[in-house]
Amino acid sequence: xxxxxxxxxxxxxxxxxxxxxxxxxxxxxxxxxxxxxxxxxxxxxxxxxxxxxxxxxxxxxxxxxxxxxxxxxxxxxxxxxxxxxxxxxxxxxxxxxxxxxxxxxxxxxxxxxxxxxxxx
Length: 120
What we know:
Radius of gyration: 14 Å
Distance between the termini: 30 Å
Structural class: alpha+beta
Shape: globular
Number of strands: 4
Helix content: 25-40%
Strand order of the largest sheet: 1-2
Largest sheet: 2 strands, antiparallel
Order of helices and strands: EEHEHHHE
């Protein structure tokens, strides 16, 4: 299972499993792979928390929130991007997961299609 090390209060390991995807959907109402390039702060926090639970099952969302510095959001987003690139969807014939576009964070409205748009 692909993992990415991240430095918080100590070195920790993030993993992206189907359990993480399912729980993210329960918490945020959207699957992680359906998100646009810009994530809300809440989505970043939730994904980090869920992806760290295999490293530390006792970790709470509040624990993760207390360990993060707003000034280091770029670092956290890079770590999420690195993990998703390792576990992302594979195209037929590809040996490694398809690289994903960079993520950005936003404190604005939640990600998703604009009203009146549809996706195929």
